[in-house]
Amino acid sequence: SLVGQRRRESPERARSQNVWRNYWIKSALVASPINDWSMLQVWLYLTMNNKIDLVNPLYFKGLDRIGCFMCPACRIAEFKIVEKLHPDLWRNWEDKLCKWASERNLHREWVLYHLWRWLKLPGKILRSMEELGLEGHSENASNRMLLKTVSINREKASVTILFNAAIPISTFAKMAYPLGETVLEDGSLTVSGDVFRARVSENKVVIDFVEEKSIKSILNKISGLVAKALLCKGCGSCVDNCPVGAVKLVSKTPIVDGQLCLRCEYGACLSKCPVVSFFIKGDGFKALCDAQTIRY
């Protein structure tokens, strides 16, 4: 696919190549023909070639960037333009924000001042909130509260992980084959690999290890699979990244065919999963693991 992104739009895009593979969907080949252009060059090209009529008219109504209208990277001034141009659309979004805030006991200013744009408030915003006598932020504001690691405890050759939510065992079982043989019995699941055995039940996972060097890798995979079983939205990245087509989406749930699965690197389909990636990086795993001398 062809995209109109340019290097000067962000530090991340500045590092991008002109042609690349989508990180999450390997079959998607992406090219940006104007990657090295400035904004001035874009508008000069449109003007010189009489292409102005093809430009999205929203650009002429005050918006600098067009895409997801509630993008957290937008300025508040742009939100106000959206609210003026499409009041019904904005009202619907604001109603959802108010409902979210109410369910999590967040103050109304969380919506009023657009604090939903941050997972963690910048220092300047935090100080402003304190000056107003308001609590700066709450971890409840993030949807990460849906699944959080409560504790990781290590005892010699085993690690016990406790989560704040019930693990959907049947869903977990459908995805777990890349990690090892699975046995579902009495509401709990046992996954047996070459160097470990994991017992999954309710909101707890107990992992027994054969060798020390495998702890980090298996802990990542098992914990990531818990997140995937609970939070998967059916994006299909795991389907696209399976080299033998062993993963299928059934009602937006990934199911692994044990007859086809190669168990490549203990589940290559997990390494390119957005849910797994962001859960492992953002859930305090490193701090919890360091406390138990499980180095990352």
DSSP helix fraction: 25-40%
User: What is the H/E string?
Assistant: HEEHHHHHEEHEEEEHHEEHHH
Low-confidence stretches: none
What structural class should be given to the helix and strand makeup?
A: alpha+beta
**Taking Cα atoms only, what radius of gyration do you get, to the nearest Å?**
23 Å
By CATH, the topology of the largest domain is Alpha-Beta Plaits
Coarse morphology: globular
Please write the CATH class name of the largest domain: Alpha Beta
Number of helices: 12
Mean pLDDT: 86
Task: Tell me the major beta sheet.
Answer: 6 strands, antiparallel
The number of distinct structural domains comes to 3
Quick one: how many beta strands? 10
User: How much β-strand is present in the residues?
Assistant: 15-25%
Strand arrangement across the biggest beta sheet: 3-4-8-7-6-5
Please state the second-level CATH architecture of the largest domain. Answer: 2-Layer Sandwich
What distance lies between the first and last C-alpha atoms, to the nearest angstrom? 36 Å
